[in-house]
């Protein structure tokens, strides 16, 4: 063992393991419900949400990858699967021959519009109903602080 390692205290270890278990269970449960209710995977949903957040319903591959924290190769494979299902389309960029856009299709928009209410209900049932209103801001603040730290810390 490395003598320089600053091991987690029992309190830190408890918090860390609870956080990891929460992430695993919540991701699995939300993913399972999305698949069962809407025939969408978590990545499908994240991509469709990012595209609907853009007023034109389209993003460059690089912008989309950044928005959902995907590597380019993983995103390319995911987009290829979604194109086959008619959820998105790929458009070449007229201004930049090297770039391409991912665009939500009418079918993709209908799919996300049908899935979103069910997903929101699941988020409310599985997360928000378990948190007293006075703790909600703390949850958001802690999450935002960790996200900022991750963004500022080189991989």
TrEMBL record:
Molecular function GO terms recorded: DNA-binding transcription factor activity
Annotated coiled-coil segments of the chain: none
Database matches in Gene3D superfamilies: Winged helix-like DNA-binding domain superfamily/Winged helix DNA-binding domain
Regions that span the bilayer: none
Cleaved signal peptide residues: none
Residue span, HTH marR-type domain: 12-148
Biological processes annotated in GO: response to stress
Matching PANTHER family: MARR FAMILY REGULATORY PROTEIN, TRANSCRIPTIONAL REGULATOR, MARR FAMILY
Name used for this protein in its record: MarR family transcriptional regulator
Protein species of origin: Glycomyces algeriensis
